[in-house]
Write a structure and sequence with these properties.
The chain is of the alpha+beta class and 209 residues long. It is 46% helix and 19% strand. Strands 3-2-1-6-5-4 form a six-stranded antiparallel β-sheet, sandwiched between helices. Strand 1 and strand 2 form a beta hairpin.
């Protein structure tokens, strides 16, 4: 009797776990689909980046998502889910500064589950409430195998980052990188381009001036 009940409980637990995994996968797919649609629409780049940040917040249930982009070998805060009108475009980091700079410099993800502000690489700004947040997850934004920015996800309370969350943030960083490359092309340039030539020509794809 007891053995049968335990077996049934195990089956229920496995079924619930499977359903939760499926739900997370579907949610992840929907987010990537929405980001892909951002990439093909004619929208101001700032609005697109803000939309991506909002999607990341929705998926990870984080308290903060900050997106930094490279300018003159510095990282500039360009989008945030929290109202930072006074610091957007003004907060700058050298590649030698902070966890964010380390991620860009080393081209590696950082995941800290608690007391991120105690990390020796951390840089305090004072103007950003994120300075006191516990958990920190950061991934480079990659375009054509080059680091062009960094995306940060933070939680106020300690948070153990799952492998799924890390994979998602890495992929979002890659999608943002592709988006930035596309943003440099005008609608006329896209219309006039010989797209088949990109596939049929020999050698790696290189940007054309």
């Amino acid at each position: 009797m007891g053995g049968s009940g335990e077996c049934d409980n195990n089956k229920v637990a496995k079924q619930k776990d499977l359903e939760e995994r499926l739900e997370r996968t579907e949610k992840q797919l929907r987010m990537f689909q929405k980001i892909s649609r951002f990439m093909v629409r004619e929208m101001p780049l700032q609005d697109v980046l803000q939309g991506i940040v909002d999607l990341v917040v929705e998926f990870t249930a984080c308290d903060s998502c900050l997106l930094y982009l490279m300018e003159d070998k510095e990282l500039v805060l360009c989008a945030s889910n929290t109202p930072h009108p006074s610091v957007i475009g003004k907060v700058r980091l050298k590649l030698t500064e902070g966890l964010t700079g380390w991620v860009a410099r080393e081209r590696r993800m950082v995941a800290i589950s608690r007391e991120a502000f105690r990390d020796s690489r951390f840089k305090f700004f004072g103007d950003l409430p994120e300075d006191t947040f516990e958990a920190f997850l950061s991934a480079p934004v990659i375009a054509r195998n080059r680091v062009v920015g960094v995306i940060n996800v933070q939680h106020r309370q300690p948070h153990a980052h799952s492998g799924n969350e890390m994979e998602v943030i890495t992929t979002v960083g890659e999608q943002v990188g592709c988006l930035l490359v596309l943003a440099r092309m005008t609608a006329a340039a896209i219309e006039e381009a010989n797209h088949a030539d990109l596939v049929l020509s020999a050698g790696p794809i290189t940007p054309r001036s």
